Amino acid sequence: MANRGIGEVLTGAAVLVVAAGFLVFAVAHSGRTTATGYKLNAIFDHIDGLNPGADVRIAGVKVGNVLGMRVDPKTFLAHVTLSLNDEIHLPKDTSAEIASESLLGGKFLNLTPGGDDKDLVPGGTITITQSSVSLEQLLGKFIFSAASLTDKAKATGTSGDDTKPQPPDVPGPPAVPK
């Protein structure tokens, strides 16, 4: 009985070691990096779907991470703090936009460098920004506009796709038998 207990303990310990190894491997190869480099800020109207840890990309290449976000209590604008690799030096007229990885995927911050001779200093703010586009809002507007067109068509007695009045049906010449 004692041999069976020791065997079970050793088997359990081996399973735990293997599980810990998988966990270390998964974290090491997750693609997320710790915040290194210098910090910049960006101000947006809204940042729907952007999360801390999201990628910061230039030309599709990851160059940093989103560190955090907050709402300014006076302006009610979203302030995003990001970290960029030390070798990336952005011009002052760089623009930032929140983009989608795919139709249903997560969001990332896309930077487009400008042509200014002066660079943004660490702790500086990107002033040219484009907020996130909400798929739900776009779909809602489309449905509302389609319903509005249908209601107008019912009120006027048209099918909704008639763009100009049609002439009344006028019978043509009678068919001549052969």
Task: Give an account of the 3D structure.
The chain contains two helices and eight strands. It is of the alpha/beta class and 178 residues long. The chain has a domain at 38-136. It has an eight-stranded mixed sheet, with no helix packed on it.
Low-confidence stretches: none
Question: Roughly what is the average pLDDT, rounded to an integer?
Answer: 83
Structural class: alpha/beta
Strand order of the largest sheet: 7-1-4-3-2-6-5-8
Helix fraction by DSSP (H/I, runs of at least 4): 25-40%
- Helices, by number, come to 2
Largest pleated sheet: 8 strands, mixed
**Total beta strand runs:** 8
Counting copies of identical and different chains, the oligomeric state is single chain
What would you call the shape?
Answer: flat
Distance between the termini: 109 Å
H/E order of the elements? Answer: HEEEEEEEEH
Rg (CA only): 30 Å
β-strand percent reads 25-35%
How are the SSEs ordered, and which strands pair?
Layout: H1 2-28, E1 38-44, E2 55-58, E3 61-71, E4 78-84, E5 95-100, E6 107-112, E7 125-126, E8 128-130, H2 135-156
Parallel strand pairs: 1-7, 2-6, 5-8
Antiparallel strand pairs: 1-4, 2-3, 3-4, 5-6
